[in-house]
Amino acid sequence: MSPSSTPTTEAPGVAPGGSIRVRIRRFDPSVDAAPRFESYEVPRTRLMRVLDVLDHVHEALGVDLGYRWLCTSKKCGTCAVNVNGSPVLACWEEAQDGMTIEPIGNMPVVRDLVTSRDGYEATLAAVAPQLQRREEYPGFPEPLAADDFAPSVHLRDCIQCLACQSVCPVIAQKDAGFAGPAVLVALAELALDPRDGAARGATAGSVAKVFSCVSCYECERVCPAEIPIVSEAIEPLKRLATAQGHVAGARRAAAFLAVVKERGFADGARVAFQLNGLTLRALRLGLRLFRRGKADILGAWRARRAPGADSVRRTYEHGEGSP
Ligand code: SF4
Ligand code: SF4
Ligand code: FES
Known about the structure:
Layout: E1 19-26, E2 36-43, H1 50-60, E3 80-83, E4 86-89, E5 100-102, E6 109-111, E7 114-115, H2 118-126, H3 163-167, H4 169-172, H5 181-191, H6 200-207, H7 218-222, H8 229-243, H9 251-263, H10 268-276, H11 280-291, H12 297-301, H13 309-321
Parallel strand pairs: 1-5
Antiparallel strand pairs: 1-2, 3-4, 3-5, 6-7
Helix pairs in contact: 5-8, 6-8, 9-10, 9-13
Bound molecules: iron/sulfur cluster (2 copies) and FE2/S2 (inorganic) cluster.
């Protein structure tokens, strides 16, 4: 995260003077049948942020607009909104002429730009996000080594803005039961804490369903704190869950690994057969891929191996023996 607490850049075309036009999505589920967009003209000011625009619409234009903020300095994470389809912090994002402001996705709208955090908070509570000490608290000051906390140092920058949750395609599949990236960041922070003694691998695999993550990196793309969510939270949790034997939902990864170890290459058709079995649907899909030259159906059944397959297998086995 930027060490500065004051925005210092000026958006192109947002010099003081003149005005900008913005569109804001309005919706009160308790009275409106459907959302609508309203346009507003707002005077430009120096270093104008999206939050300044919302303040003007609310205070100067007298619009009963629902929006949320607290710190105005990229610390509290309450002000996330979508600007032109992408989640940003309203207090930090430069205002642009012609921008469209909407609530962030993947969570219910309370009113206008305010979304409910209830689902996130319930999921967070379910993963027990408190330190569970393996040894008794030694008293203040507790001797802590900086090196011991290096693996989780970036995770501590999370401001719980939920921008990452709002773009996760797996959360969008409501029946996936996936906790989501923000919850996994909180869980990983504890799992990587040397003082913690809870079975975080079990929680990651069974409660948070970490293996449902498809590593699309959308969460990292939008994180305003620039946290390496996949490599420093999700992947360590997957490793921990695997090491502790909680691999529910890791069927795809396990099948992929088994096929690469056996054949020395990622034989997609073989992985698909291993996962789905010989169903009519799988056969139809296989035939379609075969016609397009994208799958070798017969090869999937033959014990087809790449040159150097033994070397690939030995490399994997060596890796599995590593700490
Ligand atoms: S990980 Fe990043 S995007 Fe997600 S809640 Fe934390 S700060 Fe926001
Ligand atoms: S990388 Fe995983 S957690 Fe992040 S958005 Fe993609 S599926 Fe969701
Ligand atoms: S108002 Fe606190 S992060 Fe934007």
